[in-house]
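The protein record now logged underneath.
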Amino acid sequence: QVQLVESGGALVQPGGSLRLSCAAAGISFSWYVMGWYRQAPGKRRELVATIFGAGAPTYADSVKGRFTISRDNNKNTVTLQMNSLKPEDTAVYFCNGKWAQNNYWGQGTRVTVSS
C-alpha cells in the first residue's frame, strides 16, 4: 500500500537542468524524512539530499550549490531540482522515505548526463 513513484529522469547535456519529482502514498508524509539517493553504473547507492518534515534540507558535498530539494506536505510530494549537471551525476535516482524503523524506496528514475 506504500508507494513512492519517481519521475522526471532524462538524457541531458552537461550544464543542463532537470527536475525530479516523487509522489508518495500510504504514509503519514509529514512525519517522514524524505530523501533522494542515486546509484551510478558500477557504484553503490549514495545519498544525494534529504529534507525533514518542516523543510530543513541537507546535501551531499558533491551537489551543494547545484541541487535543491523541496517538499509539499499537502501534496505528498518531494522534488529535486538539478542544475549545472555533470557527467558524474549520471545515475538512477531513488526517492526514499524514512520514519523510525520504516524505510521505503521508489523504483528509480534514470538520469544520463552526456554530450
